[in-house]
């Protein structure tokens, strides 16, 4: 059977662990939210780059028959 002192120490240790776990969860949640924002930003940039590449390709080679063959030919 635990004494009151042992019980209080155990309870304090568990409360400390929970506090650290809550802080870690908050930090991970913040990092995940930031990563999602960054991922969305990168997806937008990639879409813009692909659109620019398509329009450039159309301007350079209006007729697909004039397009040079791929490098492996």
Report low-confidence residues grouped into runs of 5 or more: none
Count the beta strands: 0
The 3D shape can be described as rod-shaped
- Total DSSP helices: 1
Which structural category fits the helices and strands?
mainly alpha
Strand content: under 5%
The major β-sheet equals: none
Query: Termini separation (Å)?
Result: 82 Å
Q: What do the pLDDT scores average to?
A: 91
Q: What is the C-alpha radius of gyration, as a whole number of Å? A: 29 Å
Q: How helix-rich are the residues, as a percent range?
A: over 70%
What string gives the helices and strands in order? Answer: H
What does this structure look like?
- The chain is mainly alpha-helical and 73 residues long.
- Helix content is 78%, strand content 0%.
- The model has no long low-confidence stretch (mean pLDDT 91).
Which terms summarize this structure?
78% helix, single chain, 73 residues, mainly alpha
Task: Provide a compact summary of the structure.
With 73 residues, this protein is mainly alpha-helical. It contains 1 helix and no strands.
């Amino acid at each position: 059977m635990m004494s009151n002192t042992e019980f209080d120490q155990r309870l304090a240790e568990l409360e400390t662990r929970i506090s650290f776990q809550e802080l870690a969860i908050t930090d991970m949640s913040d990092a995940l939210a930031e990563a999602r924002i960054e991922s969305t930003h990168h997806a937008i940039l990639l879409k813009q780059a692909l659109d620019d590449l398509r329009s450039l390709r159309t301007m350079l080679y209006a007729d697909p028959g004039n397009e040079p063959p791929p490098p492996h030919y």
